[in-house]
Amino acid sequence: MPTFADLGVPADLTALLAQRGIKEPFPIQVATLPDALAGRDVCGRAPTGSGKTLAFGLALIEGTTTGKPRRPRGLVLVPTRELAAQVTAELAPLAAVRKLRVAAVYG
């Protein structure tokens, strides 16, 4: 099984994942991260709890480090407020490594 580093995830994000106890990528991450990190569009499908949030989130964070300060740089649409909170909680620590912030907006 490849590591996150093998898939192209930068060292600072890989280190934070390891600190959080995430050491081996899930199959959906192995299948999508190399292409997503290279800037290509990907479409993946996997069961609940299989690592989809990190599969798209790592690429989103890595790809949005440049831009105008205090302006939105990425958008993730999810169907429920609970999932919005979950995605925010999962991605916020990773975004902080790059001095980015994550916010959930729902109504």
Commentary on this structure:
The structure is a single chain. This protein has helices at residues 11-19, 27-37, 52-63, 81-97. With 107 residues, it is an all-alpha fold. It has a single domain (11-97), classed as 3-Layer(aba) Sandwich (Rossmann fold). It is globular. 21% of the residues are buried.
Category from helices, strands and their pairing: mainly alpha
Segments where pLDDT lies below 50 for 5+ residues? none
The amount of helix comes to: 40-55%
Count of extended strands:
0
Radius of gyration: 13 Å
Average pLDDT confidence is 93
Number of helical segments with 4 or more residues? 4
- Find the CATH superfamily: P-loop containing nucleotide triphosphate hydrolases
Report the CATH architecture: 3-Layer(aba) Sandwich
CATH class descriptor: Alpha Beta
